[in-house]
Amino acid sequence: MTSDPTATEFSLPTQWLIAVRNRRDREAFGHLFDYFAPRLTAMMLRSGMSRAIADDVVQDVLLTAWTKAAQFDPARAQASTWIYRIARNRQIDILRRERRPVPDALDTGEEHTEQDAHQALALDQESAQLRAALAALSPDQRDVIEKAYLGDLTHTEIRQRTGLPLGTIKSRIRLGLERLRHELKEIR
């Protein structure tokens, strides 16, 4: 399906996504859509979404896959991993807007491959590096970054909880993120 000589080592959905990425191949996108739409819909319905919202999310996820296909790197993840991650992020966004608790990740029914194991190991290593980089921050910077990004609080909510001025909160976040970027530059 693709002219990429290395593409045959990837799963069929990954080959389709490579074709979309490299040539904006509409036929390959049609195959991706036909393959993932029912699986994503089932995943959304199992999480408790209504059929209408699930259909909207699936449309949005697959549109994102089309528009951001240039960002797909088959060396880092299979198409299924990449697309399910987009779907999971959309699901979390919707649940946050509704202030409902986020359900545990659902089994997608996809077979796990050796490459998935390598990806999981790489993710664990990256997570360990992130934890180490967070630990290297000053306690003040780490506290506001954790509240903002892990606690999902706005700057105003952080101000209300800590009593710190907004400018101080923004400065600590900015400086902490700069330090994290510096510490984690080799991950990119």
Describe this structure in words.
The chain is mainly alpha-helical. The protein contains eight helices and no strands. α1 (12-23) crosses α2 (26-46) and α3 crosses α4. The two termini are 30 Å apart. It has two domains: 7-111, Rna Polymerase Sigma Factor, Chain: A (Orthogonal Bundle); 116-183, Winged helix-like DNA-binding domain superfamily/Winged helix DNA-binding domain (Arc Repressor Mutant, subunit A).
Keywords:
Arc Repressor Mutant, subunit A, 188 residues, 2 domains, disordered N terminus, mainly alpha, Rna Polymerase Sigma Factor, Chain: A
Q: How many whole angstroms does the radius of gyration measure?
A: 20 Å
- Strand runs, count: 0
CATH fold assignment of the largest domain: Rna Polymerase Sigma Factor, Chain: A
Compressed to H and E, one letter per element, the order equals HHHHHHHH
Number of helices: 8
What's the short version?
Helix content is 70%, strand content 0%.
Secondary structure elements and their pairing?
Blueprint: H1 12-23, H2 26-46, H3 51-67, H4 79-98, H5 114-136, H6 139-150, H7 155-162, H8 166-183
Family: Belongs to the sigma-70 factor family. ECF subfamily.
Keywords: DNA-binding, Sigma factor, Transcription, Transcription regulation
GO molecular function: DNA binding; sigma factor activity
